[in-house]
Design goal:
alpha/beta; Rossmann fold; eight-stranded mixed sheet; about 40% helix; elongated
Length: about 290
């Protein structure tokens, strides 16, 4: 009996490995996204960790740079990025410094330089989407660097204009550690979309409404979307909100015809190869083993 079982003992582990590897490669084919984790060096000799989520197949896409809010991190950005990437957009998030605005500016500039070197990035179709602190910091960066402004700026649950704003139109960046001199709002020349929860407990809707009004007075293209009954964090509608932001960015960056090339995740997964194809090596191993034995 021991002599008979000895070859079989070696057969099972190899079969299990082949089945596991086949299922692993199949699952990778089913995944509609490619994730790139990278670290960039900044001009001040610091660094910033980033992640880019790209749709399949790999080619040139419009880009969304996402800056999360206070306390956010790359590991928690996945669901927000996924909602937007599914629409055919590259989404990028960065682990920025939340305590120093000057450091954030250096990190953000490093990311913009990186994008300019990537073949998969359509540098003529870029949107910045910021949430809460991330929105306030990207807004301030746009004022400080008018030559680097995107094709669309999205402000989600942002501070808007505080009571300290005077006729000069210089915003009060509430609760943000700042080391930069804020510039007049006339420095902003890109279209802006504001998305704000009606029940935001940190930044009143009225402040964002005032900011939108000032920008419109300056001749900017501005839209304000107020979501009824929604708090600062956009729960429980957060996924729907980010999906809608992705749809808005796609249409704005590539035109109304962009939806002709849209493929849902379900469609992409249905077009992926079947699992049994990835188990052919295991089947060949079974056949070969029995033929040999």
């Amino acid at each position: 009996m021991a002599v008979v079982l000895q070859p079989f003992i070696g057969f099972v582990p190899i079969l299990v490995v082949l089945l596991f590897l086949g299922a692993l490669f199949w699952a990778k084919q089913q995944d509609p996204f490619v994730r790139k984790w990278f670290t960039l060096k900044t001009a001040d000799h610091g660094s910033v960790k980033c992640v880019a989520v790209l749709p399949k197949p790999l080619r040139q896409y419009p880009v969304i740079i996402y800056a999360h809010g206070s306390g956010g991190n790359l590991m928690n950005d996945g669901n927000d990025l996924r909602q937007m990437t599914e629409l055919g957009l590259v989404t990028i998030s960065l682990e920025y410094n939340q305590a120093n605005e000057a450091v954030f500016a250096a990190q953000f500039e490093a990311l913009l330089r990186y994008l300019g070197r990537q073949k998969w990035a359509n540098t003529n179709a870029i949107a910045w989407v910021g949430f809460s602190m991330g929105a306030n910091l990207t807004f301030d960066f746009a004022l400080q660097h008018p030559e680097q402004q995107p094709q669309l700026l999205v402000q989600l649950s942002s501070a808007g204009l505080g009571e300290s704003v005077g006729k000069s139109g210089i915003p009060d960046m509430k609760s943000i550690p700042s080391t930069l001199n804020h510039q007049p709002l006339t420095n902003l020349h890109c279209p802006v979309l504001f998305v704000h929860g009606e029940q935001d407990e940190f930044f009143p809707v009225a402040d964002t409404e005032r900011l939108a009004s000032v920008l419109q007075t300056n001749g900017l293209s501005v839209e304000l979307k107020i979501i009824p009954g929604t708090p600062h964090g956009m729960e429980p509608e957060r996924a729907v909100v980010f999906r809608s932001i992705g749809e808005y960015c796609l249409t704005h960056l590539t035109g109304k015809d962009a939806w002709q090339n849209y493929h849902s995740i379900a469609q992409l997964q249905a077009q992926a190869p079947a699992l049994w194809l990835f188990w052919l090596p295991a089947a060949a191993w079974i056949f070969g083993w029995f033929a040999w034995s």
